[in-house]
Write a structure and sequence with these properties.
Blueprint: H1 2-7, H2 19-26, H3 31-38, H4 48-61, H5 65-73, H6 82-90, H7 95-102
Length: 103
Amino acid sequence: MWAESQKHGEASRAPEVYISRLENILSASNPNSDKAANKPEKISLIEHRRAYNCEIMLSKVKTPLNELMDAVLALDEAEMDLERVDNLIKFCPTKEEMELIKE
């Protein structure tokens, strides 16, 4: 910046400084404050442990969700054995969870 002004023979004139830009560059800010303000609030309909257990059960099914839904709706006994049906019943939403969803 100083060399540039001396090239043009303007040594007596100070270079133009943008104070607001300089303040933004040199100001101390908390990098986490912006992230916290922009982070959406997390809403849980079921408790964490129940959700985790449901995730484990579904990972053991090894059937894509759309095929699983079709098998349940068709009452396909070849696809839906007793253990699988029991597991699905265990993780059906409770009345309280259904009311939370409706709200």
